[in-house]
Protein backbone atom coordinates (compact mmCIF):
# COMPACT_ATOMS: atom_id res chain seq x y z
CA UNK A 1 0.00 0.00 0.00
CA UNK A 2 2.83 2.39 0.85
CA UNK A 3 4.41 1.84 -2.57
CA UNK A 4 1.10 2.41 -4.27
CA UNK A 5 0.60 5.68 -2.48
CA UNK A 6 3.78 6.96 -4.13
CA UNK A 7 1.96 6.75 -7.46
CA UNK A 8 -1.24 8.61 -6.61
CA UNK A 9 -0.24 11.66 -8.64
CA UNK A 10 -0.66 9.59 -11.79
CA UNK A 11 -4.15 8.72 -13.02
CA UNK A 12 -5.56 5.37 -11.97
CA UNK A 13 -7.81 3.93 -14.67
CA UNK A 14 -9.52 1.76 -12.06
CA UNK A 15 -9.98 -1.92 -11.37
CA UNK A 16 -13.37 -2.26 -13.03
CA UNK A 17 -13.19 -3.11 -16.76
CA UNK A 18 -13.20 0.02 -18.85
CA UNK A 19 -13.45 2.42 -15.91
CA UNK A 20 -11.52 5.68 -16.15
CA UNK A 21 -10.34 8.02 -13.42
CA UNK A 22 -8.49 11.17 -14.38
CA UNK A 23 -5.85 13.35 -12.79
CA UNK A 24 -4.10 16.56 -13.82
CA UNK A 25 -0.52 15.88 -12.75
CA UNK A 26 2.32 13.69 -14.05
CA UNK A 27 5.03 12.74 -11.60
CA UNK A 28 6.88 9.69 -10.36
CA UNK A 29 5.53 6.16 -10.09
CA UNK A 30 7.06 2.90 -8.54
CA UNK A 31 8.73 -0.63 -8.76
CA UNK A 32 9.36 -4.45 -9.08
CA UNK A 33 11.31 -7.12 -11.08
CA UNK A 34 11.31 -10.69 -12.60
CA UNK A 35 12.13 -13.11 -15.43
CA UNK A 36 10.69 -13.29 -18.95
CA UNK A 37 11.18 -15.17 -22.24
CA UNK A 38 13.95 -14.02 -24.55
CA UNK A 39 12.66 -11.79 -27.34
CA UNK A 40 12.54 -13.08 -30.91
CA UNK A 41 14.36 -10.97 -33.49
CA UNK A 42 12.28 -8.61 -35.57
CA UNK A 43 12.27 -9.65 -39.23
CA UNK A 44 12.22 -7.59 -42.41
CA UNK A 45 8.83 -9.18 -43.13
CA UNK A 46 7.45 -7.76 -39.88
CA UNK A 47 8.70 -4.28 -40.75
CA UNK A 48 7.43 -4.46 -44.34
CA UNK A 49 4.02 -5.53 -43.08
CA UNK A 50 4.05 -2.71 -40.52
CA UNK A 51 4.72 -0.13 -43.21
CA UNK A 52 2.11 -1.68 -45.50
CA UNK A 53 -0.53 -1.34 -42.78
CA UNK A 54 0.40 2.27 -42.08
CA UNK A 55 0.13 3.19 -45.75
CA UNK A 56 -3.50 1.98 -45.87
CA UNK A 57 -4.62 4.47 -43.25
CA UNK A 58 -6.35 7.71 -44.08
CA UNK A 59 -4.16 10.64 -42.95
CA UNK A 60 -5.37 12.25 -39.74
CA UNK A 61 -6.81 15.73 -39.96
CA UNK A 62 -4.12 18.39 -39.73
CA UNK A 63 -6.35 21.05 -38.16
CA UNK A 64 -5.34 21.69 -34.57
CA UNK A 65 -2.83 19.60 -32.63
CA UNK A 66 -2.53 15.86 -33.03
CA UNK A 67 -3.07 13.69 -29.95
CA UNK A 68 -1.13 10.46 -29.36
CA UNK A 69 -1.68 7.95 -26.56
CA UNK A 70 1.45 5.95 -25.73
CA UNK A 71 0.59 2.84 -23.70
CA UNK A 72 2.91 0.22 -22.27
CA UNK A 73 2.76 -3.09 -20.43
CA UNK A 74 4.75 -2.74 -17.19
CA UNK A 75 4.16 -6.24 -15.83
CA UNK A 76 7.00 -8.46 -14.55
CA UNK A 77 7.69 -10.34 -17.78
CA UNK A 78 9.18 -7.18 -19.31
CA UNK A 79 11.68 -6.56 -16.50
CA UNK A 80 14.77 -8.22 -18.10
CA UNK A 81 14.68 -5.90 -21.12
CA UNK A 82 13.00 -2.91 -19.48
CA UNK A 83 15.93 -0.51 -19.89
CA UNK A 84 16.12 -1.19 -23.62
CA UNK A 85 12.37 -0.69 -23.99
CA UNK A 86 12.48 2.58 -22.05
CA UNK A 87 15.27 3.87 -24.26
CA UNK A 88 13.21 3.19 -27.39
CA UNK A 89 10.13 4.80 -25.92
CA UNK A 90 12.05 7.84 -24.66
CA UNK A 91 13.42 8.30 -28.16
CA UNK A 92 9.89 8.54 -29.50
CA UNK A 93 9.10 11.30 -27.02
CA UNK A 94 12.21 13.15 -28.17
CA UNK A 95 10.99 12.95 -31.75
CA UNK A 96 7.56 14.22 -30.72
CA UNK A 97 9.20 17.22 -29.04
CA UNK A 98 11.26 17.96 -32.14
CA UNK A 99 8.38 17.86 -34.61
CA UNK A 100 5.92 19.68 -32.32
CA UNK A 101 2.18 19.91 -32.90
CA UNK A 102 1.41 16.80 -30.87
CA UNK A 103 -0.05 16.30 -27.41
CA UNK A 104 0.92 13.03 -25.73
CA UNK A 105 -0.54 10.96 -22.92
CA UNK A 106 1.29 8.08 -21.23
CA UNK A 107 -0.72 5.03 -20.08
CA UNK A 108 0.70 1.95 -18.35
CA UNK A 109 -0.56 -1.03 -16.39
CA UNK A 110 1.00 -3.43 -13.90
CA UNK A 111 0.32 -5.17 -10.58
CA UNK A 112 -3.11 -6.04 -9.23
CA UNK A 113 -5.45 -4.03 -11.44
CA UNK A 114 -3.24 -0.93 -11.52
CA UNK A 115 -3.68 0.98 -14.78
CA UNK A 116 -2.69 4.64 -14.90
CA UNK A 117 -2.70 7.56 -17.31
CA UNK A 118 -0.82 10.83 -17.23
CA UNK A 119 -2.46 14.10 -18.14
CA UNK A 120 -2.14 15.29 -21.73
CA UNK A 121 1.07 17.25 -22.17
CA UNK A 122 2.55 19.43 -24.89
CA UNK A 123 6.10 18.86 -23.64
CA UNK A 124 6.89 15.15 -24.15
CA UNK A 125 10.11 15.55 -22.14
CA UNK A 126 7.93 15.56 -19.03
CA UNK A 127 6.51 12.16 -20.00
CA UNK A 128 9.97 10.84 -20.82
CA UNK A 129 11.06 11.72 -17.28
CA UNK A 130 7.91 10.18 -15.85
CA UNK A 131 8.39 6.99 -17.84
CA UNK A 132 11.87 6.42 -16.41
CA UNK A 133 10.34 6.21 -12.92
CA UNK A 134 7.96 3.40 -13.92
CA UNK A 135 9.12 -0.01 -12.75
CA UNK A 136 7.62 -3.43 -13.40
CA UNK A 137 5.24 -5.25 -11.06
CA UNK A 138 3.72 -8.71 -11.30
CA UNK A 139 0.21 -8.89 -12.71
CA UNK A 140 -1.93 -9.74 -15.72
CA UNK A 141 -2.28 -7.67 -18.87
CA UNK A 142 -4.98 -4.99 -18.96
CA UNK A 143 -5.15 -4.16 -22.65
CA UNK A 144 -8.94 -3.96 -22.51
CA UNK A 145 -8.72 -1.01 -20.14
CA UNK A 146 -6.25 0.74 -22.44
CA UNK A 147 -8.51 0.38 -25.47
CA UNK A 148 -11.57 1.53 -23.52
CA UNK A 149 -9.65 4.50 -22.14
CA UNK A 150 -8.58 5.62 -25.60
CA UNK A 151 -12.15 5.34 -26.85
CA UNK A 152 -13.34 7.56 -24.00
CA UNK A 153 -10.56 10.08 -24.60
CA UNK A 154 -11.34 10.24 -28.32
CA UNK A 155 -15.01 10.83 -27.60
CA UNK A 156 -13.96 13.94 -25.65
CA UNK A 157 -11.50 15.09 -28.31
CA UNK A 158 -10.12 13.22 -31.30
CA UNK A 159 -7.13 10.95 -30.64
CA UNK A 160 -4.89 10.62 -33.69
CA UNK A 161 -3.39 7.25 -32.79
CA UNK A 162 -2.58 4.76 -30.03
CA UNK A 163 0.88 3.25 -29.75
CA UNK A 164 1.04 0.13 -27.56
CA UNK A 165 4.20 -1.70 -26.45
CA UNK A 166 3.95 -5.09 -24.73
CA UNK A 167 5.09 -8.69 -24.77
CA UNK A 168 2.07 -10.85 -23.94
CA UNK A 169 -1.72 -11.04 -23.85
CA UNK A 170 -3.70 -12.73 -21.05
CA UNK A 171 -7.24 -11.64 -21.89
CA UNK A 172 -10.13 -12.84 -24.07
CA UNK A 173 -9.19 -12.01 -27.65
CA UNK A 174 -12.83 -11.58 -28.70
CA UNK A 175 -13.30 -9.00 -25.97
CA UNK A 176 -10.22 -7.08 -27.11
CA UNK A 177 -11.38 -7.22 -30.70
CA UNK A 178 -14.72 -5.78 -29.66
CA UNK A 179 -12.96 -2.83 -28.03
CA UNK A 180 -10.68 -2.45 -31.04
CA UNK A 181 -13.75 -2.36 -33.28
CA UNK A 182 -15.06 0.58 -31.27
CA UNK A 183 -11.81 2.44 -31.97
CA UNK A 184 -12.11 1.58 -35.65
CA UNK A 185 -15.56 3.16 -35.77
CA UNK A 186 -14.20 6.47 -34.51
CA UNK A 187 -11.08 6.34 -36.68
CA UNK A 188 -8.33 5.66 -34.11
CA UNK A 189 -5.56 3.41 -35.51
CA UNK A 190 -3.56 1.24 -33.11
CA UNK A 191 0.17 0.65 -33.69
CA UNK A 192 1.32 -2.37 -31.69
CA UNK A 193 4.96 -3.20 -30.97
CA UNK A 194 5.55 -6.67 -29.53
CA UNK A 195 8.63 -7.55 -27.53
CA UNK A 196 9.28 -11.29 -27.52
CA UNK A 197 7.61 -14.22 -29.24
CA UNK A 198 4.36 -14.93 -27.37
CA UNK A 199 2.01 -16.44 -29.96
CA UNK A 200 -1.22 -15.41 -28.27
CA UNK A 201 0.01 -11.83 -28.13
CA UNK A 202 1.10 -11.88 -31.77
CA UNK A 203 -2.29 -13.17 -32.87
CA UNK A 204 -4.20 -10.61 -30.80
CA UNK A 205 -1.95 -7.70 -31.76
CA UNK A 206 -2.21 -8.47 -35.47
CA UNK A 207 -5.99 -8.66 -35.22
CA UNK A 208 -6.26 -5.36 -33.33
CA UNK A 209 -4.01 -3.70 -35.91
CA UNK A 210 -6.11 -5.07 -38.78
CA UNK A 211 -9.40 -4.01 -37.21
CA UNK A 212 -8.25 -0.45 -36.53
CA UNK A 213 -6.27 -0.04 -39.77
CA UNK A 214 -3.16 0.35 -37.67
CA UNK A 215 0.00 -1.75 -37.80
CA UNK A 216 1.90 -4.45 -35.89
CA UNK A 217 5.62 -5.12 -35.57
CA UNK A 218 7.93 -7.18 -33.33
CA UNK A 219 11.02 -5.64 -31.81
CA UNK A 220 14.06 -6.61 -29.83
CA UNK A 221 17.45 -5.10 -29.05
CA UNK A 222 18.84 -6.24 -32.39
CA UNK A 223 16.24 -4.16 -34.23
CA UNK A 224 16.41 -1.09 -32.00
CA UNK A 225 17.59 1.33 -34.70
CA UNK A 226 14.96 0.20 -37.15
CA UNK A 227 12.21 0.42 -34.55
CA UNK A 228 13.28 3.93 -33.58
CA UNK A 229 12.65 4.98 -37.17
CA UNK A 230 9.24 3.30 -37.20
CA UNK A 231 8.25 5.01 -33.96
CA UNK A 232 9.46 8.28 -35.40
CA UNK A 233 7.35 7.81 -38.55
CA UNK A 234 4.24 7.05 -36.49
CA UNK A 235 4.74 10.13 -34.31
CA UNK A 236 5.25 12.37 -37.32
CA UNK A 237 2.20 10.91 -39.06
CA UNK A 238 0.03 11.41 -35.96
CA UNK A 239 1.14 15.03 -35.69
CA UNK A 240 0.77 16.17 -39.28
CA UNK A 241 -0.20 13.46 -41.75
CA UNK A 242 1.51 13.18 -45.14
CA UNK A 243 2.91 16.70 -45.20
CA UNK A 244 4.83 16.08 -41.98
CA UNK A 245 6.05 12.74 -43.30
CA UNK A 246 7.28 14.45 -46.46
CA UNK A 247 9.32 16.91 -44.42
CA UNK A 248 10.80 14.02 -42.46
CA UNK A 249 11.55 12.11 -45.67
CA UNK A 250 13.34 15.13 -47.13
CA UNK A 251 15.54 15.47 -44.07
CA UNK A 252 18.67 13.66 -43.00
CA UNK A 253 18.08 10.04 -42.03
CA UNK A 254 14.58 9.96 -43.49
CA UNK A 255 14.85 6.61 -45.29
CA UNK A 256 12.04 4.95 -43.36
CA UNK A 257 9.77 7.97 -43.86
CA UNK A 258 10.58 7.98 -47.59
CA UNK A 259 9.65 4.31 -47.83
CA UNK A 260 6.44 4.91 -45.92
CA UNK A 261 5.55 7.95 -48.04
CA UNK A 262 6.24 6.04 -51.27
CA UNK A 263 3.96 3.21 -50.14
CA UNK A 264 1.21 5.68 -49.25
CA UNK A 265 1.55 7.44 -52.61
CA UNK A 266 1.24 4.13 -54.49
CA UNK A 267 -1.89 3.38 -52.44
What can you tell me about this protein's structure?
There is one protein chain. The protein has helices at residues 2-5, 44-55, 82-99, 124-132, 143-156, 173-185, 199-212, 224-250, 255-266, and strands at residues 11-12, 66-73, 102-110, 114-117, 161-166, 190-195, 215-219. By secondary structure, the protein is α/β, with parallel strands linked by helices. It has one domain (2-241): Rossmann fold. Strands 1-4-3-2-5-6-7 form a seven-stranded mixed β-sheet, sandwiched between helices. Residues 1-9, 15-41 and 263-267 have low confidence and may be disordered.
Radius of gyration: 17 Å
Question: In percent, how much strand structure appears in the residues?
Answer: 5-15%
The strand order across the widest sheet is 1-4-3-2-5-6-7
Structural class: alpha/beta
Q: State the shape.
A: globular
Major β-sheet annotation: 7 strands, mixed
Helix-strand pattern, N to C?
A: HEHEHEEHHEHEHEHH
- The CATH superfamily turns out to be von Willebrand factor, type A domain
Annotation field: number of helices: 9
Q: Tally of extended strands? A: 7
CATH topology heading = Rossmann fold
Low-confidence stretches: 1-9, 15-41, 263-267
CATH architecture: 3-Layer(aba) Sandwich
* Count of discrete structural domains: 1
Helix coverage percent of residues?
40-55%
Amino acid sequence: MANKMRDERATNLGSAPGSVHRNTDHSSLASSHANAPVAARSTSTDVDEFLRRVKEMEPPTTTGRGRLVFAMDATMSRQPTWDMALALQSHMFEIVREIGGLDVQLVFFRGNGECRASRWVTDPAALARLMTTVQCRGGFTQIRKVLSHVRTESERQRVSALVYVGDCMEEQIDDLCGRAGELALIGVPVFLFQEGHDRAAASAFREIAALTRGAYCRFDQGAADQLRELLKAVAVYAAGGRQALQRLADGRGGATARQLLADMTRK
